Amino acid sequence: QVMGILVAFIAVCVWIYSYSPRAKDKLWWGSLNVAAPRGGLGLLAAYAAFAWPFHLDILAFALIMGILGFAQAVAKDFGQDEEADKKFGVRNVVNVYGHRYAANVIFTCGWAAGGAYALTLLMGLIPIWAGFGILGCVATILAAFYTGSPWRGENNMGWVLTYAGMGIAALGFVAPQLVV
Prior knowledge:
The chain is mainly α. It contains 9 helices and no strands.
C-alpha cells in the first residue's frame, strides 16, 4: 500500500513537470519536481516493495539522495538546456538568477548532503567503512566549478559529476547490505 502511494506521487510529479500546471516553468518547483522522484521518493518506493521504508537509515538515504538530486536538477539546466529553456520561457535557477548563483546552489547542496552523510555515519546508521560514499557529496561540490565546462555527451561536466556523486553516495548506503 505504501509503495502504491509513493509510486502514485512520483507519477504525479512526472506528469506535472511537463503538463499543466507545468512545474518546469515554476522556478524552484521545477528542480524540486525533478529531484523528488529521482532522489528520495524513488528510493522509498523501491524499498517499500520489500519492507517498511520509514526507518531512520532509509530516510537518511532518501534525504541525501533528494539533496543530491536537487543539485543534479539545477546542473542539468546549464549548457544545451539553457538556451532551449530561455527560448521557451522556462524559468529555472540558471535562467533567472544566473550561473554563479546556480553554481552556489549546487555547491551548497553538496555540502548539505555531505553534512547529512557525516551525521548518518556518526549516528551509526551505516558502518564507518561505508563512509567512502561521502565522496559522492565531494563530487557534487566539485560539480559547482564545472557547470560551464562542455561534456562530449549530453550536457556539461557539472551535470556528469552530480550524477557520479549520486551513484557514489548511493553505493555507500547499498554496500553494507551486500556484505553480510
